[in-house]
Amino acid sequence: MASFEWILFLLPPFIVQSTMLKIQLAQVNFIYGNNAYLPYSVGLLQANLQSDLFIANNCEFMPIIFLREEIEVAASKAACADILGISCYIWNWEYSKTLARRVKELNPKIKIIGGGPQIPHKDEELFKKYPFFDLVVIGEGELTFNEFVRNFIIDPNFEFSTINGIAFQKEGQYILNPGRSRLNEINDIPSPYLENVFGDVIANYDLDFQVSQETHRGCPYSCTFCDWGSATMQKVKRFSKERIFSEYEWMAKNKIEVLYNCDANYGLFPEDRELTDRLVETKNRSGWPKKFRAAYAKNSNERVFEIAQKLNDAGMSKGVTLSLQSLDELTLDLIKRRNMKINDFRSLINTYTNKGIPTYTELILGLPGESKQSFMAGIDVLFQAGQHNGLNIYPAMVLPNAQFNDENYKKLHGIKFVETPMLLSHGTPEVDGIQERYEIVIKTNELPVEDWIDSIIYAWVVQALHCMNLTQQIARYLNRFKNISYTEFYSSIISWSKNSIVLKGNIELLKSTASDVAKGTGSLVIEDFRFGNIVWPVEEILFLRLWADGFTGDLVPFLTAEFGLEQDSAEELVRYQVFSLRSHISKKGDRQKFSFNFLKLLDDNFPEIGEEKEDITVVNLSDSEFANLEDYAREVVWYGRKGSTMVNKLEIFEI
Question: What's the confidence (pLDDT) of residue 635?
Fold first, then answer.
């Protein structure tokens, strides 16, 4: 570097440009109803650039592109810039590429920089596939992007080889510069909230904004399917509590509805108790933020429980993750994962349930080593352990920079995947014509394609019928008193579906959906606009369709035919099942008489109870006032599912 250039770096306020350099940042996302995410990642980039006086005196920041505008509209804005920085995630990758391509066509001189976890930087064909990128940033972007902008101000034609942590193309060759060390002190990066990066966004858009926040960075685990912000297998570094507290105040002032914590393991540190205390105090004092979501520490402990209880008592909890991903020991070894013992899991479920704190557990279908049989058996184990309401099952995704996408790893485990349109749960169907896509596993050595189809159908059915309480009480009763496993019960429902007009049509729809996806020709989106202009996860739209179309009316003949229940017993059991379901027609104060005390019979706190008759009257204590099915679908199925709100709060009515 010439001595003059060194002087510029030593004198930050020095103005070099005769006209201000224009910087455009983009991090687009979907709108969920009237809810939109503030673009946190590029906000960090802008806050860091603005704090550098040399850059601030020579640059103008254009309004951040954060909504999925029509490409021509967004591109015409961005093409006026000198530098375009795009933060790329799985939910905006196709849009981001299309935007970058069009901007480059409109302004060939612009420098376009891609960053984020979706950039496939290990692919040496990257710039041949995506020639509109001038360079891509690998890993943390704040310092790398700052260094690029500083160099560009001095000399727009500078050599990219001087910057660590990037890849670029030179004379047709893929160049990967040395990696950049992680930030030594992450608190040196200013907060986009506290630096008012989003002030104009909040003022100019009539949207309900949701925010992302880090209290730490990095993840000490090395799960092969994961790429947590490209910071897996990393030392965890913490942001100061003063910064976090100040961000809470900013959220309160700006009436932020939902705070999404971005940590890989919230509750990992003792200090997280103090953070939670301050967050709850802020909400109780100001009313905001109303809800908090987090990925909790992988092996839940007393600290996580204390945190969850405080959030739940404040009405802020959207459910606590008790993570497993799989219950098969071989699979856990192959994905470098360790779970808590199932007895510890059962104890935790009981502890959380007794305190009224909702929990949910996630499983992934398509992991190496997992067969159809072990997958179904794992679900059975979870139900036996008491996780009846909060089970979420996802197809395994192949992320570009995770070990899962390594060619040797895929070959070793026989991993085959297909690209399919992305199902953006609870998003508003887009009209921009740009379909986001992702790659999902449909075959491994232990899971042939036909078994994957059977397994994903089974997963959809157990989530819709059991976890969302269309048949949960029935299945629990039969498991406890007739020794019928959950696997047998739900497999029987699928087999028996030919006898039910409602169920038959829906099972056939699931089969065609799964088969088309496995062929690479289909989508996981099932449209039914009776429940709003919303993209529903398959299990949720299945639940809504079955309930709305009267599926529960077919349960009595199913129980008598498949499990030999007497007609009157089957009718009473189904009647209790329907009464327990929080539906759009159930009302607070409703009462029904039963000749069995199902409340006690299905309570895991009474393990030795017999099946004696006991005449009781049960009253519904849950608030259930909904204008229509669409209102119910939004409030209970979408907003409330992870809060275990699908089951009415029932109590014996004492005269």
Answer: 87
